[in-house]
Amino acid sequence: MNADPKSPTSGKPRRTQAERSQETRNKVCEATLKALVEVGYEQISTTLIAQKANVSRGALTHQFPTRNDMLVAAFERLVEGWRDGYPFSLDPDKTQLKVDELIDALWQNIFADGRYIAAMELMLAARQDNDLGHALRDILVSWIRKRDRITVRLVGGNVDDAEAELRVQLHLSVLRGIAMHQSFDSDPETANKLIDLWKRIAQKA
C-alpha cells in the first residue's frame, strides 16, 4: 500500500530548488554577519563563511560569486530587517511615540542586537572608493533617508524642521556609541544604565 502523502509518517514534502537556494542564502548571510562581529571585515573570506554556514564552498559561490556579493547581501538582509520591523513599520499618521519610547524601540530593535557591530564593520567599509563601498553606500543612503523621516514623524516632528532632524541624529549617535561601548564592556548592565540616563536627559530637553 502506498503511503498517504498527507500522512505525518510520509515525510516532509520535497523542497523546491528556489527554497533550497533561499535557505543557503539565509544561512550564508547570517554566518557572514556573525563572522563580522567575531573576526572583523578584513578577515572575512568565502571559505570561512562556507564553514560557518555549514554549506559547501561551491553552494556558496553559486549564490554569491564574489566576497563582495556575499557582504552586500548580508548587509542588505540586516537593513531589510530594520526597515520592515518595529518601529519603522509603524504608520506615523496613526501612531506616535514618546521620546523615551522611541529610544527604547531604537535600542531594542537595532542597537542592542549583537549584529549591529557587523553593520558598523560594513559601514566603515562603505567609505572605500571601490565597488563594495559604492554598493554599501547605495543601501545606506536609501535606508537612512527612510529611517530619519519616519523617526522624526514618529515623535510628532516636521521633516522640514532642521532641529527635529538634528534631535533624531543625536539620539542615533548616542545609541550608536552605547552599542560600541557594550561590545567591550564586561558589565552587561552598563548599557541599560546608560540608556536609562539618556532617556531622562532627552525627556528634559
Indicate the percent of residues in helices. Answer: 55-70%
Q: How many runs of DSSP E, i.e. beta strands? A: 0
Class per helix and strand makeup = mainly alpha
- Kindly provide the radius of gyration, computed on alpha-carbon positions and rounded to a whole number of angstroms: 21 Å
Largest sheet entry: none
**How widely separated are the two ends?**
75 Å
The SSE string, one letter per element, is HHHHHHHHH
Shape: globular
Beta strand %:
under 5%
Number of helices: 9
Low-confidence stretches: none
Q: How confident is the prediction overall: mean pLDDT? A: 91
Overview of this protein structure:
The protein has 205 residues and is mainly α. It has a domain at 67-204. It contains nine helices and no strands. Helix 1 crosses helix 4 (67-84) and helix 1 crosses helix 6 (116-125).
Nutshell version of this structure?
With 205 residues, the protein is mostly helical.
Topology:
Elements: H1 17-39, H2 46-53, H3 57-63, H4 67-84, H5 99-111, H6 116-125, H7 131-154, H8 162-182, H9 189-204
Helix pairs in contact: 1-2, 1-4, 1-6, 2-3, 4-7, 5-8, 5-9, 7-8, 8-9
Key features of this structure:
single chain; 205 residues; mainly alpha; 9 helices; globular
